[in-house]
Write a structure and sequence with these properties.
Layout lengths: L1 H15 L6 H7 L29 E7 L3 E7 L6 E4 L4 H11 L5 E3 L5 H4 L2 H7 L4 E5 L12 E3 L4 E4 L2 E7 L8 E5 L4 E5 L2 E2 L2 E2 L7 H12 L6 E4 L4 H11 L4 H15 L7 E2 H7 L8 H7 L6 H13 L2
Parallel strand pairs: 3-4, 4-5, 5-6, 10-13
Antiparallel strand pairs: 1-2, 2-3, 7-8, 8-9, 9-10, 11-12, 13-14
The structure holds zinc ion.
Zinc ion binds next to loops.
C-alpha cells in the first residue's frame, strides 16, 4: 500500500515541475477520469454541494484558519497528489491532512500576504518533496520557499487534474487564481469574496475590475473559493448600495441564517456573485442611482463602490 502510494506520487510531483507540455505519458499511466464518472461514484469527502452535472473527481476539504481565513486541501484520489491552497497556519493544515490520511505534495499560493504564505517554510520542512507554486509577479522573494513561479496561461497538474493559472492582480501586484475547468472550481484568494472583493493594496480600480471580470466570465455554476469568511459584513454593505435588489435581500437573510448556524458561506458561485455582489454589478442601475453616478463609466462606479466599502 505504501509502495503503491509512493509510486503514484512520483509522476504527480514530476508533472507539476513541467510546464504545459508532457500530458500524454502522464495520462497513459493512469486510468481515465471518465472511468470514474459512472453514476453512483462518490468517494468525495467534501461536504459542499456540487452541481449534479459535474463529472470530475477532485476532492476539496475546506477548513478555517486564523480568525477568518479558509484553507483548502485539494486531493486527486487517482494519483494521491494533494495540494493546499494557501498556508495561513500550519497546525490546522496538518490536522486536516492527518484526518484525511492525505500526503501533501503541492502548495499553491495565491499571493504574498503572510496569512496566505506563513506556513510555507514549515510545511516544506515537514513534508520533504512538497513543491511550492506561486505567482511570478509578486515582489521577488515574497513567496517563501517558491519552487515554481507561474503566470497566466500556465498549467498546474494535480495528478491528471489540471488547473489553469489566471493573473488576477489588484489586491496585490502579482495575485493569481487557480481555475480547475474540469471541476468547475476556482480558487481566488483575496480577489473576489462573497458579495465583496479584496482591498486595492497594490493595484487600481481598473486593474481589479479586470481581474474580477476574468473570474465572473467563467460559467455561472463555477464554484468560487474565497480565502476569507467576510460574507456577513459584505452583505450588510451590499444592501446599502443596492437596496432594491431582491435577490441580494434574499441572500442577506440566507447569509444571516447560515452564519448563525456556523455554516461557511464559501464557496460561492459566479452566478450568485453576478446577481448580488456590487463589485460585479458596476452596470446596475440601482447601484448607480445610490452612488449618484448614472452616467459614469464602470471603472469609476467600481472605484466609488470600493471607496465606500473601505469607509463602511
Ligand atoms: Zn491578502
Amino acid at each position: 500500500m505504501r509502495l503503491a502510494l509512493a509510486r503514484a506520487l512520483i509522476p504527480a510531483a514530476r508533472a507539476s515541475s513541467i510546464r504545459p507540455t508532457p500530458r500524454a505519458p502522464v495520462a497513459r499511466r493512469r486510468p481515465s477520469l471518465r472511468s470514474r464518472d459512472r453514476p453512483g461514484f462518490s468517494t468525495r469527502s467534501s461536504s459542499f454541494a456540487r452541481p449534479a452535472a459535474a463529472s470530475a473527481a477532485m476532492e476539496v476539504h475546506q477548513f478555517p484558519c486564523l480568525n477568518d481565513n479558509y484553507s483548502f486541501l485539494l486531493h486527486d484520489p487517482n494519483s494521491g497528489a494533494t495540494a493546499v491552497v494557501d498556508t495561513p497556519e500550519v497546525a490546522p493544515i496538518e490536522a486536516a491532512l492527518a484526518e484525511r490520511g492525505w500526503t501533501l505534495t503541492h502548495i499553491l499560493n495565491t499571493h504574498h500576504h503572510w496569512d496566505h504564505t506563513g506556513g510555507n517554510e514549515e510545511l516544506k520542512k515537514r513534508h520533504p518533496g512538497v513543491r511550492v507554486i506561486g505567482p511570478a509577479r509578486e515582489t521577488k522573494g515574497a513567496i517563501p520557499g517558491l519552487d515554481r513561479a507561474v503566470v497566466e496561461g500556465d498549467v498546474v497538474e494535480l495528478g491528471a487534474i489540471e488547473a489553469r493559472v489566471l493573473d488576477t492582480p489588484g489586491h496585490t501586484a502579482g495575485h493569481v487564481s487557480y481555475h480547475f475547468p474540469s471541476e468547475r472550481k476556482i480558487f481566488v484568494g483575496d480577489t473576489l469574496f462573497a458579495m465583496g472583493c479584496g482591498r486595492l493594496f497594490e493595484g487600481d480600480a481598473e486593474t481589479m475590475l479586470a481581474s474580477v471580470r476574468k473570474i465572473t466570465a467563467l460559467p455561472g455554476d463555477t464554484q468560487v473559493y474565497c480565502a476569507h469568511e467576510y460574507t456577513m459584513t459584505n452583505a450588510k454593505f451590499a444592501a446599502t448600495v443596492e437596496p432594491e435588489n431582491a435577490e441580494l435581500a434574499r441572500r442577506v437573510r440566507e447569509t444571516e441564517a447560515m452564519r448563525a448556524a456556523g455554516i461557511p458561506t464559501v464557496p460561492t458561485t459566479v452566478e450568485k456573485e453576478l446577481a448580488t455582489n456590487p463589485f460585479c454589478r458596476s452596470d446596475s442601475e440601482g447601484l448607480r442611482r445610490t452612488l449618484g453616478m448614472e452616467g459614469a463609466d464602470d471603472v469609476a462606479v467600481f472605484a466609488e463602490t470600493r471607496r465606500r466599502k473601505d469607509a463602511f
